[in-house]
Amino acid sequence: MADEEGNLYGMGLGDVFMLSPQGDGSWQYTVLATAPTGSDRSPLIRDTAGNLYGTDASQVFEVVPNADRTVWTMHSLYTFCLATGCADGMFPKGGLSYAGSASGAPYDGTSPLYGTTFTGGAHGDGNRGGVGYRLTPAGGGAWQEASLYDFCAEDGCADGEGPEGGVVVDGSGNLIGTTSRGGTGHQFHSDGGAGTVFKLTRSGDTWTHGVLHHFCSDRRRHLCRDGETAHAGVVIDGAGNIFGTTHEGGKLQRGGAYRLTPDGSGGYAFSTIEPFDAGSFTAMTMDAWGNLYGTTENGGAKGMGAVYRLSFDGTAWTTTELYGFCARNRCQDGSNPAFSTVLLDAHGDLFGTTFVGGRHDGGTVFELVPQ
Asked: Domain map of the chain by residue range?
């Protein structure tokens, strides 16, 4: 994520860092704080006061700067697995969301935050289940956690389990996300269903769970043509269409991009946008014209991951590979942008990260500039 001054913020294996542009075109890297249980898959959010929020493998945290922004301090807002049997959830993944986040508005610092845990909950344990949760400021720096839905409540986890991509808040305050397992679609692996797209519909303080799509509902010759294993979250456009990616399945059995279109009667019609030659772990980014941008784990022209754009002309989708990684000697440009949700700035430049490669083989932060 970026601030008004062009500084970039991110997380790499537990380090919350800032990249600041310098006058000579270089960038200064600063570690702001280190999370006790590291994560490289949690996007950060920023509030109107400049504080940062995120998740690591066990907690939701806030990173607060001092008056001159030279020293940053991390505070834990909530640590999971405090309830008996980890009924409150384990392993928060996918980051945080809030009302208005889909429009790009900063977090106000006082409204509820929403997210998911990968396992735990009333019907889970360290390997199964998952929780959709809400965190609300309770005064005096304290936050109150509430479980909105415990996954795997239905036989065979038909309602889904293992939510990894977090949730988005739609214009009506409902939560939409994915599960990487569970559902009623067939799964050719041994751990249950192929995943779902779900919606938690709000009515006052009551939340009702519904499945919008069960992956691997379209099976042909032992292939999940509609995809399976949705590690990534979703993005919603102004018309209520939902876009996301799968890591496996699809025409090439390496995942793909999909769209769920409201059918006018409360349901959604599923369609595949594009099969990938490599899976994706992270949500796509949408620009003002409805183009979608994302990354693949590997594949692409050079075989080590790619940044792509999906464009719709009203009839068909066109896929453009914007960059294929490991194009430079010894992968100095980085490789495997597996966990990078790309950031699009006001100039149309794209920013993201790679998991490995670069000068020290520890990954890179990259910028793609339109030509």
From this structure: 80-280
